[in-house]
C-alpha cells in the first residue's frame, strides 16, 4: 500500500511540474480521470503528464521550424547575434502552450527578430505582452499602426517645411478614428471595446487627448485664455511608442 501511495505522489508531482499547477489541483484532476477511466490515479496522472509533455514538445518543435524558415528568408544564417536566456527561454515556454497558430507565428517572429542585428528594439516585455493578447487585439493594433503610418506620410508630404511641422513627434499626438480602424476589420462593437481596453492596459494604445485654447472675457473687458482638453474614449485613439515598436516585431 505504501508503494502505491509513493507512486501516486510521484505521478501527481510530475504532472504538477509539467503544467505549473498546484499539487492539490493536479491531484483533483487525477482523481477525476481515475474515476471515469477506471484506472489508478498514478496511471491517469502518468498519461496526462505524457500528453502535456508531447503537446509542449510539438509546439516547441514547430516554433523551431518556423524560426529556421524565417532565418533563411532574412539571410541571418551567418550574421545573427546571440540573445540572452532571459529573452529566449520565456519565448519557448509561452510558445509551447500557445494553440493559436497566428499568435504562435508571432513568437517565432519575436525570436528571430531578436537575433537580427538590424533590429534595434529587443524587449523581454514583448514576450509577456504577447502572452496576454488575443488575435483580435493584434489585428486591431496592426490597423492602428497602419492608419498611423498613413497619416504620418500624409503630413510629411503636405506640411513638411511648415514652422509647426515636427517629423519626429510622438505617436500619441496622432488621432486615430474608430471608423478608420474598423473599416477593414470584421469585429463587433463589444469585441472592439474589450480589445481597446486590453491594448490600453498593456500600454500599446491609449485614448486620444486633445488640447485647445479658448478666449474669454474676465472682467473689465480683459481678454484671457484657458486650456480645454477633450478625451477621445473609444472613438478617438492613438498608438503608443511601445505599440509601434511591438507591431514592428509582429510585422517582421
List low-confidence stretches: 1-9
> What radius of gyration results from the CA coordinates?
26 Å
**Helical residue percent?**
55-70%
Which term fits the overall shape?
A: globular
Number of helical runs?
Answer: 10
Q: Assess the beta-strand content as a share of residues.
A: 5-15%
- Quote the distance from N terminus to C terminus: 58 Å
Largest sheet: 3 strands, antiparallel
Mean pLDDT: 78
* Structural class by secondary-structure content: mainly alpha
Please trace the helix and strand order, writing H or E for each element. HHHHHHHEHHEEEEH
Give me the side-by-side strand order of the main sheet.
1-5-2
- Count of structural domains: 2
Tell me how many strands there are.
5
Structural account:
Helix 1 (2-19) runs parallel beside helix 3 and helix 7 crosses helix 9. The strands form two sheets. The chain has a three-stranded antiparallel beta sheet with strand order 1-5-2. Strands 3-4 form a two-stranded antiparallel ribbon. The model is unreliable at 1-9 (pLDDT under 50). With 252 residues, the protein is mainly α. The chain has helices spanning 2-19, 23-37, 41-73, 85-95, 101-115, 125-131, 135-159, 178-182, 189-201, 241-250, and strands spanning 176-177, 205-207, 209-217, 223-231, 236-239. It has two domains: 2-131, no CATH class; 135-250, no CATH class. The longest helix has 33 residues, at 41-73. It contains ten helices and five strands, in the order H-H-H-H-H-H-H-E-H-H-E-E-E-E-H. The chain starts with a helix and ends with a helix.
